[in-house]
Amino acid sequence: MARRKDNYIFGLDIGTRKTCAVIAEVNESGGLDIIGIGMTESKGLRRGIVVNLEATVEAIRKVIEEAELMAGVAIESAYVGIAGNHIKGFNSRGVIAVGGKSREITREDVQRVIEAAKAVSIPPDREILHVLPQEFIVDDQDGIGDPIGMTGTRLEVNVHIVTTSVTSTQNLIACVNRSGMVVADMVLESIASSETILTPDEKELGVALIDIGGGTTDLAIFEKGSICYTSVVPIGGDSFTNDISVGLRTPIPEAEKIKKRYGCALSSMVEDDETIEVPSMGGRKPRILSRQILCEIIQPRAEETFNLVHDEIKKAGYEKSLNSGIVLTGGGALLEGMPEIAEQIFDLPVRRGSPTGVGGLVDVINNPIYSTAVGLLLYGHRNTASRSRVRGGENTFSRLKTWIREFI
User: Fold this and answer.
1) Do residues 303 and 345 make contact, with C-beta atoms less than 8 angstroms apart?
2) How far is CA 123 from CA 69, 85, 126, 163, 315, in A?
3) What is the CATH superfamily name and number for domain 5-85+166-189+355-392?
4) DSSP letter at 97?
5) How far is Cα 234 from Cα 226, in angstroms, rounded to an integer?
6) Residue 85's closest CA among 236, 234, 240, 239?
7) pTM of this structure
8) Could you read off the pLDDT of 299-351 as tens digits, one per residue?
């Protein structure tokens, strides 16, 4: 029997360091099985922003071909992750009066109150990416997740709004379209990662998700089951690599290899007599150096990264609310010693997060570098009613209706 195309979901993570594609099939029980994976090096992005269109398109085409070949299916649309310094998030509130004789809250009332919450002034060069309802309030009764059918005279909603640069978003969409793929939806990468990394209990008690990518480090804070703060720190794994390249006087490709093989963010975890071989510039002979020297280069950058994130958490006022601690994910989280140094800086429990909630090729994707791609699949699976939308031509109201369907 022929397999239906709408049984498949495609997640595309276009990062600064790597581009990753993952295909999942909806199984008989309604879950997702990973059936195709593609990954290649990214060369066309810098800190999440497209700087070389052709290089980005080539990378996207390559991972699409790899994933489709492994899965044995052709995919037409993708859920695409977006990140970068241009991402801005803020909270807003909407208030409306409930009409009708019965004063019963309807779906239309919910739409109106969310419209009121998003009626904020933003610069013309920015657009709303997400409107994320946190809680509804009916006649001063807060903490309501679904107000439809309830009776009241006043309806309020607290939302978290994420905005992006119009040009950065459109350039990313153009790259995907030129690769032959339609964008089903654009999703903030930290929100996508949270789909597969965080547990419902962590989101309820309060948790900070720190996604350490190649160009940036994304922060998302959850409390009472909803997202309440997002931010981007302009430091990522590439900053560590550049420091190693300069500090050890070795080419950047070699510095990346050294970081992955020998890197440690906490020098106290390394023995004094451990040594590493470091390739030199210009064809000179390799040198033998102490691994402690490498750690002394990496540790200050790790401390700076986590201190900047800590400052963001304090600025947002959630320093005392993270009862579930910190969860690290992304390629940068793989660096030895990162959870340990994070625990010292945040004074909270810290764990590495790898993708969960899917079947199929779980042994392959059980790695923090796949967090965003797998999260995009789970996000898309929850929004299957909107999979046929073309992101490039959708309007703000259609995106709003999608979020209403998701949270109601």
Assistant:
1) yes
2) 43, 16, 6, 10, 23
3) ATPase, nucleotide binding domain (3.30.420.40)
4) E
5) 25
6) 234
7) 0.86
8) 999 999 999 999 999 998 998 999 999 999 998 999 999 999 999 999 999 99
